[in-house]
UniProtKB/TrEMBL annotation:
Ranges for domain GIY-YIG: 11-86
Domain of life: Bacteria
Annotated TM spans: none
InterPro entries with a match to the protein in the record: GIY-YIG_endonuc, GIY-YIG_endonuc_sf, UPF0213_domain
Stated name of the protein: GIY-YIG nuclease
Organism: Pseudomonas putida S13.1.2
Family membership noted in the UniProt record: Belongs to the UPF0213 family.
Amino acid sequence: MSDVVETVVGKPWYVYLVRAANGSLYCGISDDPQRRFAAHQKGQGARYFKTSPAQALVYVEQWPDKGEALRQERLVKRLRKSAKEALVASYRTAAH
C-alpha cells in the first residue's frame, strides 16, 4: 500500500492598482480584486479613498499565495509613480 500525498493548491492572491479621482494610484492585495475594488468604491476598506474616491481598477497581477503577493506589493509600493504608470500601460496593452 503506497502513501498518497495530496498537494493542496491554495487560492491565488493578486496585487492590484486602483486609480483614485485625483489621479493617484493605490496598491493593495486581495484574493478577489474585483470584490475589493467594489468595496473601495463604496468607501469601505482603505482610508486612502476617503479624500479621493476609487475610480478604476487599472492593474491586476496574480500570485500563487498571500506571502508572494505581499512581497510583490511591497516592491510595487516602492516604485516611482512613472514606473507604476508603466505597469498600468503594459497591463492595458496586454489586455487588448
